[in-house]
Write a structure and sequence with these properties.
The protein is of the alpha/beta class. The protein is about 30% helix and about 15% strand. Pathway: Cofactor biosynthesis; molybdopterin biosynthesis.
Length: about 350
């Protein structure tokens, strides 16, 4: 990563520092996970509506000057977009950026692992909801589990930290929680279980209180079957509650994504592939940055627009959700949001 003087810290209107950018490089994906999008897929954005790498690089440089220190590339699936690694290499050299990571489904990732290690990527989030090949094919509508596992072991061999993200879905993969958790016994990985969210391309009638597998039930299930879960101290901005288990090399994590228990210290902002700024996962987008860039705005004007958006950030995901049209949230695909 680039070495530089530490950038100034920018705070939102609730006193939370904004240090972490989740940057979606594409809305396209090579899987069709049923909780993310319909089987036929979604209507993808025309190429000209996506931010170019040059536009994204300009924005990351601007945000680094405002205090962003960590950038995570998301999608869709990032490796569906061509020339991703050279773009990541350029981002890693921007002054102020101290950490560059990505979230991937692992299908196309393994051949790029040596280059990721070379440019200094220290951690990768790997989406993996089951270790059962038939259930993997049913959930993702693609038979790609061997490729994902090859990526997992290639990352570990390269010394890159791996966080496995598994969405917990009632009636779909709850039998997979323990096999996934058992990976931590022999491997130095974090396995993190995520409450299912309504970004599934369809309706989602549960509330955080009635969600069949909320963070409380997930923890109870793991503890009942694995033994005592010892909490790991959390840091401001952490979304996961982490635990160690005696005799395990890795750690377990639980992310209360739908219950939204971590909003009070959230330090994340999101940029969608078409340049929409989201200061909360649950908002409808608060600023069209692409319009500013292509309308000729100077760096100073873009920076002022960003700071203005940060000064009007929702206190939490529930407030952000309440400000959206009632019909909109449950029909949005996670691949258009940026993870």
């Amino acid at each position: 990563m680039a070495l530089s003087a530490a950038p100034s810290v920018l705070f939102d209107n609730h006193g939370r520092p904004l240090e972490y950018l989740r940057l979606a490089v594409t809305d396209r994906c090579n899987l069709r996970c049923f909780y993310c999008m319909p089987e036929e897929g979604i209507k993808y954005l025309p190429k000209q509506e996506l931010l170019t790498y040059e536009e994204m690089e300009r924005l990351v440089a601007l945000m680094a000057g405002l205090g962003v220190r960590k950038v995570r590339l998301t999608g869709g699936e990032p490796f569906v977009r061509r020339d991703l690694v050279p773009f990541m290499d350029r981002l890693s050299q921007l002054p102020g950026i101290e950490e560059l990571t990505l979230t991937t489904n692992g299908v196309l990732t393994a051949p790029h692992v040596p280059e990721l290690a070379r440019i200094g990527v220290k951690a990768v989030n790997l989406s993996l909801d089951t270790l059962d090949r038939a259930r993997f094919a049913a959930i993702t509508r693609r038979d790609e589990l061997p490729q994902v596992l090859a990526t997992l072991y290639a990352l570990l061999a390269a010394g890159i930290r791996v966080k496995i993200n598994a969405v917990v879905m009632d009636g779909q993969n709850t039998q997979d929680l323990l096999p996934l958790a058992e990976l931590t016994r022999e491997l130095p990985v974090d396995v993190r279980f995520i409450e299912e969210m309504p970004f599934n391309g369809g309706s989602h009638e549960a509330t955080p209180a009635t969600l069949p597998w909320n963070h409380h039930r997930i923890r109870e299930h793991l503890a009942l079957n694995l033994g005592e879960l010892t909490p790991v101290p959390t840091r401001p901005g952490d979304t996961a509650s982490h635990y160690t288990v005696a005799g395990h090399q890795g750690r377990l994590g639980i992310i209360a994504a739908y219950s939204r228990t971590f909003c009070g210290t959230c330090n994340r902002i999101r940029l969608t592939a078409e340049g929409g700024l989201k200061t909360c996962l649950y908002d409808q987008g608060v600023l069209d940055i692409r319009a500013l860039l292509r309308g000729g705005s100077s760096d100073e004007q873009v920076a002022e627009a960003l700071k203005s958006a940060f000064r009007h950030r929702a206190a939490n995901g529930f407030e952000a959700e309440s400000q959206r049209p009632l019909h909109q949230l449950s029909f949005e695909s996670m691949s258009t949001i940026g993870g």
